[in-house]
Amino acid sequence: MQALTTQVTRLAPTFTAVSDAIWATPELCYAEHRSVAAQIDALAAQGFAITRNIAGLDTAFTADWGTDGPVIAFLGEFDALPGLSQQAGLAKPLAVEDGGNGHGCGHNLLGAASMLAASALAARLRDTGIAARVRYYGCPAEEGGWGKVRMVAAGAFDDAQVGIGWHPGTYNAVRARATLAVANRRYRFTGRAAHAAMSPHLGRSALDAVELMNVGANYLREHMPQEARLHYAATDAGGSAPNVVQARAESLYMIRAPELDDLHALIARVDDVARGAALMTGTQVEIIGEGGAANVLPNAALCAVMHQAMLALGTLNFARDELAFAQAIRDSLGDTAAADRRAQTEGDALLPQGHGRLPLHSGLRCFSGRIEQGTGSTDVGDVSWQIPVVEAALATWAVGTPSHTWQAVAQGRSSAAHRAMIRAANVMAHTALTLIQQPGAIAQAQDELARRRGGRPYVPVLPDAA
């Protein structure tokens, strides 16, 4: 174990610098050109062979090392979020650029740690002569663009045996939970304008159709699977003049369900609600599929391997100044009671009884073998339908920090975040090495995936053709 950790430590400064550079140039989905260039330069310097334009996407690539043995896939992301610009190291909101982007989900750390794990593992395999192929997947547009879905559909994962990843968060654990399958659907209504007072009978209100669709969706909620979700935004109300019958209006729905087949069935019902609203108002509706993602099929066999790696690596300790900054972030959150109740339930931030509470989680949440149902969504799900996938969570943020907030951005290049990023790389690299050395564990994970799929077809939620 120490020899691989030594490689992680040796390479850590290189990939910490890459993480900070990506944090400083936050780019939105499918526009991550500088982020990709920084990653490719770093991996090429470590001897990886680069393949660009995966699935025809300018910012999707793979980096390969080795020619024989199982293909171990490390998953990387690097896209930012709009409107979350924030200066680093401050516990108060202060944008670097008004209205600018920010890494509110920690993807600058995510991709860098996966690259560090891949590079350290490749160096160790080179030293030992163990046969394996190490591949880093540069995956764009996780934040609503669902880049991995298009990469999966293009066959990018067809020859991989297992996928390994992680995500920044507020606690240390294997991510032993399923996610919800998700689809983005745009409903664009077209009617007929008229004077709302003098000739309302001649008008056909697209805005009425949007509102009636929302009413129908509200009634549909009672008859969906309990874990399913519908979210919507009115993206075009047709105009600001109330004395005009609005000839156009539009809403964007995010539809979620616990299973991929449930999702496709629910999409059909929401589409019917939209058609009914159009029928009631005498308007037309254009339904535009903007992509989505499958639910994650978690793999308990891989979770057990990763959990053992996390146990062996021991406690993640933080320095006094790191804890002080984390406490300042917690103070900025206002009422943290709900977050603390969650921490109490999950063991996120608790030391042994009598030792108080830390603002950064330094322990390890237990893994009992039980798989939980989560409420979020990620395009990692589509990879998990093709190959067994396992992910870690590491405490890069103060307990209670919500993702997609300025507080997450402010912590994104802190020394505590760097420390957690390096630990994540260590966890992933050791998990991979164990699997390479124990091929039966990979076979067990593949058998579990086959059982979880149960013969169900994988039908990706791809965007409609332009």
UniProtKB/TrEMBL annotation:
Alphabetical list of Pfam families matching this protein: M20_dimer, Peptidase_M20
Species, as recorded: Pararhodobacter zhoushanensis
Keyword terms of this UniProt record: Hydrolase
SUPFAM superfamilies in alphabetical order: Bacterial exopeptidase dimerisation domain, Zn-dependent exopeptidases
Protein name, as recorded: Amidohydrolase
Family matches, as InterPro entries: Amidohydrolase, Aminobenzoyl-glu_utiliz_pB, Bact_exopeptidase_dim_dom, Peptidase_M20, Peptidase_M20/M20A_hydrolases, Peptidase_M20_dimer
Domain Peptidase M20 dimerisation: from-to ranges: 187-275
